[in-house]
Amino acid sequence: MNGLAIRAEGLTKRYGDVPAVDGLNLSIPAGSFFGLLGPNGAGKTTTIHMLSTLIRPSAGEAWVAGHSVRTESLAVRSSIGVVFQENALDHRLTVAENLRFAGRLNGLSSREIRQRSDELLELFGLAGHRDRPVAALSGGMRRALDIARGMIHRPRVLFLDEPTIGLDLPARRAIWRHIGRLRASLGITVFLSTHYLEEATDCDEVAFLSNGRIVERGAPGPLIAQLGRCIVEIETDRPAELAKRLEPRLGPVLVEADRVHLRCEDEPGALLQAELASLGSAMRWRRPNLNDVFLWVNRAQTDRRQAA
Amino acid sequence: MIVRPVLGVLERETLKLLRERGRLVSAMARPLLWLLVIGAGFAATRGAGAAEYQSFLVPGVIGMTLLFGAVLAALATVYDKESGVMRMLVIAPVAHHWIVLAKALGAAAVAILQALMLLALLALLGYVSTELSIPLLAVGLIGTAFTCASLGMLIAAWSRTLENYATLMNFVIFPVFFLSGSLYPVQMLPDALRLAAAVNPFTYGVDLLKHAAIAGPSAAFDPDFSAVLDLAVLAGFSAAALFIASLRFSRETAYEPLVHRLAGRRGE
User: Fold this and answer.
1) I need a labelling partner for A272 at 20 to 30 A (CA). Which of A131, A302, B69, B252 fits?
2) Is this model's pTM higher than 0.95 or not?
């Protein structure tokens, strides 16, 4: 399989004339952590559903663990684990019974199921809850169990579709600890989709999806570094006006709601700080992150569309 | 390889049944009500011996338990679609027609379990003869249960929600029960009703149970059809129903609508 866990060539899904995913090319090395980022409606879930053989591509082809998603759907499904946005659990069964059902569906023996359930429940901090019904678990615990459910057959590729959506911060952190441990102990490929961009900082590679197309891709570090060392945010009630005034002097600016963003090579000096602060109701500066990459990519897209 | 997934579905159905005490109690109460109360009432109005008519009713109420048990268990597939369970099923490395078959087997199994419990109860009450034919009873139970489960899967494949549950009860389960030979011999029915009973696959299931002579060979009413014809109809109907349900099911899963609902939102 050439060391690639996932390869896609021109993968496309159209609904009527509207492309939900448009000519996607991917090559994701085995063992890596890949993040597909973008707002709701960008086509992330459709991409995951095509790669996991649940929906059929309108055009193009993809191979997961070396198997074609078009012609070898069963082989693809036995080498992947999928964690959907909503739990794939039976709420009336207990934690252990859910894992047993998922294990059976994946053709495991009773012994394999018992052994792997023990390992996974330990890893996900659920060892004390095996006989509780799922309905009695917290949202974070259900999500952890759902990931364990997706891992019971030891897939080589794990798809996580917005794994932390709807969870509070401690639960989100716990989920990321579990996923980190899972990657460290099993060396699986993880394909993550999320719109919480800060969660993708640990990815080996990320791709930004917008209207079904990849508009930027690369390792998070270099993507962030190319924005410069510092982002200045000025809060104001007339952002457009301020943007127009600053742009000729300080280079490209970006308006996000009531804020004007500026990119700086370095932290602003005392004089500039004082001047910028006097322009708006509040001013702060910070290191750039993946959210900034996304905002600036979007700005470039908008410029290009307006030019066209 | 396919054995374990099918076993998994069977296990889950059984667990659910054993956990839902209410379902078990009503599965026992409903047929006993027909047999002891309505059976006695009918017999009184007809002027025939109450015991004789009740003996006639025994295969009918066992059929009833199989019908309700299997159809309701198969309809729980609609609940699976609404909850997360169907996500587990569609992402498993199992061809979708096997899922339909496994669900039908599971529904049939829980229906047979209920029928066996009812049979034990009836035996205690003295309604089961020692001269019954065990092989015919086994074939009758399995054939009827599987046919009803297939009927349930056929309905489940087209049902989007469980909101139309009462409609299904009124327009499917009750007519199937009343328009069969469960409560009266088919040859005694007026022409129109006899025709309806003749195209109702459940009629042949109950008829097969009558062959087993559960309440004894001296029961006054004979089966309406031959056991071979009964079995042929049951097998033919089950195969056709499961085939159509599988087509519908795989079209829905591999081609979007179900997947979109399972993903929990439309639009993307």
Assistant:
1) A302
2) no
C-alpha A17/C-alpha A162 separation (Å) is 27
Q: How confident is the model at residue A1 (pLDDT cuts 50, 70, 90)?
A: very low
Cβ neighbours, 10 Å, residue A41: 17
Q: What is the pLDDT of residues A40-88, one digit of tens each?
A: 888 999 999 999 998 889 999 999 999 999 999 999 999 999 999 888 9
Please give the DSSP secondary-structure letter assigned to residue A94: B
Strand partners, A14: A19
CA distance A118 to A128: 10
Of all residues in chain B, the one with the smallest CA distance to A57 is B255
Residue B91 near chain A (CB below 8 Å) = yes
* Nearest alpha-carbon partner for A51 in A81, A31, A30: A81
Cα A248 from chain centroid (whole Å): 36
Residues 6+ apart with CB under 8 A from A291: A197, A198
8-state DSSP, A138: -
What does the radius of gyration of chain B's CA atoms come to, in whole angstroms?
Answer: 19
Whether chain B has a CB inside 8 Å of the CB on A87: the answer is yes
Q: Is A33 helix (H, G, I), strand (E, B) or coil?
A: strand
**Considering only CB atoms, which chain B residues are within 8 Å of A145?**
none
Q: What is the ipTM of this complex?
A: 0.85
Distance from CA of A41 to the nearest CA of B (A): 5
Pairing of β A259-264 and β A253-256 = antiparallel
Q: B23 to chain A nearest CA, in Å?
A: 15
CA distance A151 to B158: 32
CATH class of A4-217: alpha beta
At CA A302, angle to CA A298 and CA A308, rounded to 5? 145
By the CB < 8 Å criterion, does A46 face chain B?
yes
**Which CATH number is correct for A228-287, 2.40.160, 3.30.1760, 3.30.70, 3.30.1120?**
3.30.70
The domain locations on chain A are: 4-217, 228-287
